[in-house]
Amino acid sequence: MVVRTLDGAALDQADVDRVFGALADATRRDIVVRVLTQAQSVSSLARRYDMSFAAVQKHVAVLERAALVHKQRQGREQMVSGDVETVRAAARLLAEYEAIWRGRVDRIADLLGEAGDDERDHG
Predict the structure, then answer these.
(1) What are the two backbone dihedrals, phi and then psi, of residue 96, each rounded to the nearest 5 degrees?
(2) Helices marked H in 3-122
(3) CB-based burial of residue 30 (10 Å sphere; 0-12 exposed, 13-18 middle, 19+ buried)?
(4) Residue 100: what pLDDT?
(5) How many CB atoms within 10 Å of residue 38?
(6) What pLDDT is recorded for position 123?
(7) Interval 1-29 mean pLDDT
(8) Cβ distance 66 to 104 under 8 Å?
(9) Which three-class secondary structure state does DSSP give residue 7?
């Protein structure tokens, strides 16, 4: 299944699931914030969390599969950097969900306004 955003971009449903699944974890969200600000090595990331290096590597791998981060070898280090385009795509999708919700709220407000007008006309 393909999800189309209002701007016409196509997002594969599996990609959307991977992105939001990856962002469901607090540690992974924190990693994304850190590497969007500045590329960091997996080693430096691992020092920031109370977990094993292997566990941090697994978090980075989940983020990489979701295209939220990219790794690039720099000497002996694996440098991790954020992918702002994937973050923007997720933000656009959330903005569309919000627009749908706001449209529904507006329709409810219109209906309530019409009901109030009817009561005043017959009261």
Answers:
(1) -70, -40
(2) 13-22, 26-37, 42-47, 53-65, 84-122
(3) middle
(4) 85
(5) 9
(6) 56
(7) 79
(8) no
(9) coil
The rounded distance, in Å, linking the Cα atoms of 98 and 64 is: 27
Joined tokens for residue 87: 């973050």
**Cα(41)–Cα(81) distance, integer angstroms:** 9
Length of the chain: 123
Answer yes or no: are the C-beta atoms of 92 and 9 closer than 8 Å. yes
Q: Please give the structure tokens belonging to residue 69.
A: 């981060």
- pLDDT category at 1 given cuts 50, 70, 90 is very low
Q: Put the strands of the sheet holding 69-74 in their side by side order.
A: 40-41, 77-82, 69-74
State the CB neighbour count (10 A cutoff) for residue 46. 18
Residue reference for tokens 């009901």 = 115
